[in-house]
Design brief:
Layout: H1 14-28, E1 45-48, E2 55-59, E3 66-71, E4 88-90, E5 93-102, E6 105-110, E7 113-118, E8 124-126, E9 135-137, E10 158-167, E11 173-183, E12 186-195, E13 198-204, E14 210-212, E15 227-229, E16 249-254, E17 266-271, E18 278-283, E19 286-292, E20 295-298, E21 313-315, E22 318-321, E23 328-337, E24 342-346, E25 349-353, H2 373-379, E26 383-386, E27 399-402, H3 405-411, E28 416-417, E29 428-429, H4 431-461
Parallel strand pairs: 8-9, 14-15, 20-21
Antiparallel strand pairs: 1-2, 2-3, 4-5, 5-6, 6-7, 7-8, 10-11, 11-12, 12-13, 13-14, 16-17, 17-18, 18-19, 19-20, 22-23, 23-24, 24-25, 26-27, 28-29
Helix pairs in contact: 2-4
């Protein structure tokens, strides 16, 4: 090993030969020495033996520094390089290759731009210089393609897959896989679970329908097969659960658009409440019914008041109808119990009592009418009339006989319900009161007739 200044001085004989041999020795040993050559030239080689293993170095073009090229045991040592001039490049494409991006990191460059980075943790980044996972692909529209070059795949034949694999303590493979299969000229996608063997858990078929637990969702009823859950060969039951906290609500929506109302044209809502859970139904974005406890509240009648008992229906009203098979009318009716009688309501108008209860068990302070009922009957004004158009009433041209309610009230107060000209109330007659006074008047009249007959008989006998 030797170095030489590569300047042969004028010498004679053996001295000249020795100097020449030293120069040749320095050349053939690449100027190997633990110290750099005293005289340095551009592009000169030097094997630096001060390092272990020794390093092969070359003088740069400016003859200002040494460039380490390799270890003499075979490892190539290159400069860091840059994206515009990578350390490993190609003669006809000098801005494409590999370079040292950072400490313990490698970058792959094409056209002067870094495309791939392997960081110090072994994470691979495509389109990113700072991958956060073992593989990270970054782009404005990142797409990874798995292309099967087989051109003769049959139906239900696997074309490509992504496997998630792990070995358990016994060495058997467990995990999952996303599998693409062929179906005619289209593809299907399945999620399979592994535990010694493959078990398909979810399939998206060629029609875009989803099967959970079965591979053929499109085999079920059309327009009802977008999502099919279950397994016909399984002995257990199947279902779908919507889970949420006790102060939240679970929803199933039926939408025909994305606006505030269109996104919930129909909706089934279960409100979780620790004191009173409720299931509500919405149509055209409006709540139409609620089931709370054992009661059904219809058409927005959501109050918790009234009677709480299994089978009770709570509603704003029931649509009027002509008999069982007749057509529905434009009015709604309700019947309410006042505590002693049933009243009929049509829309918002009180139509009066529709029940006449006369059981002795509901009566007290019973006394025979003692007032002069003939005089009261004589004050009543029987009339003829026709119904006119008024609120829910429709004129029909029929002539009827009857009374005027407020006139009856002046003579027989209990024979009339409601007040004259009251809002949302139509006066009605209590026929039991009128009949009671009429019967009493008839009894009084009969008594008078019997008295007169007795007098006539006495006069005729004399």
């Amino acid at each position: 090993m030797a170095t030489h200044e590569y300047v042969i001085a004028n010498k004679s004989g053996s001295a000249f030969r020795a100097d020449l041999n030293d120069a040749l020795r320095a050349i053939v040993t690449q100027n190997s020495s633990s110290t750099e050559p005293g005289t340095k030239y551009a592009y000169q080689y030097w094997v630096d033996t001060s390092a272990t293993p020794a390093l092969l170095k070359q003088r740069n073009a400016a003859n200002g520094a040494w460039i380490t090229l390799a270890e003499v045991d075979g490892q190539q040592l290159l400069g860091n390089g840059t994206t515009s001039k990578p350390s490993i490049a190609f003669v006809s494409d000098v801005n494409t290759g590999l370079y040292r991006a950072a400490a313990d990191e490698v970058g792959i460059v094409t056209g002067g731009t870094e495309r791939v980075r392997v960081d110090s943790s072994g994470r691979l980044g495509i389109g990113t210089t700072n991958p956060a996972k073992l593989l990270e692909v970054s782009d404005s529209e990142p797409i990874i393609r798995l292309k099967d070059t087989e051109t003769s795949l049959g139906d239900a034949q696997q074309s490509s897959a992504i496997e998630f694999y792990q070995s358990n303590s016994s060495g058997a493979g467990i995990g999952a896989a996303i599998v693409a299969t062929t179906e005619g000229t289209t593809g299907e996608l399945a999620l399979t679970l592994h535990s010694g063997s493959n078990t398909e858990a979810i399939r998206i078929d060629a029609q875009g329908n989803v099967g959970i637990g079965l591979p053929n969702p499109s085999s079920f009823k059309i327009n009802s097969d977008d999502l099919v859950v279950g397994n016909l060969s399984s002995g257990g039951g199947h279902g779908i659960t919507i889970a949420c906290g006790q102060t939240n609500a679970g929803r199933i929506c039926f939408a025909d658009g994305t606006s505030e109302t269109d996104e919930q044209r129909g909706m089934l809502v279960y409100n979780h409440d620790t004191s009173s859970d409720a299931m509500s139904f919405f149509v055209e974005g409006t709540q139409v019914a609620t089931i709370r406890g054992d009661c059904l509240y219809v058409m927005g009648a959501t109050s918790t008041g009234g009677r709480a008992q299994a089978g009770i229906v709570k509603a704003h009203g029931f649509n009027t109808k002509e008999g069982v098979n007749g057509s529905l009318q434009g009015n709604a009716f309700n019947i309410d119990w006042t505590g002693n009688s049933a009243r009929l309501w049509v829309d918002s108008s009180n139509q009066g009592t529709i029940s006449i209860s006369s059981d002795y068990r509901i009566k007290k302070n019973i006394e025979t009418i003692s007032t002069d009922c003939i005089d009261r009957i004589k004050q009543l004004r029987p009339v003829q009339y026709q119904i006119k158009d008024y609120e829910i009433y429709v004129a029909d041209g029929v002539t009827r006989e009857g009374f005027i309610a407020h006139e009856v009230a002046e003579v027989i107060p209990s024979g009339c319900e409601g007040e004259k000209d009251a809002e949302n109330q139509i006066q009605s007659l209590r026929l039991d009161a009128i009949l009671s006074v009429t019967v009493k008047a008839l009894q009084e009249a009969v008594a008078k007739i019997e008295t007169l007959e007795a007098r006539v008989a006495t006069l005729e006998a004399s």
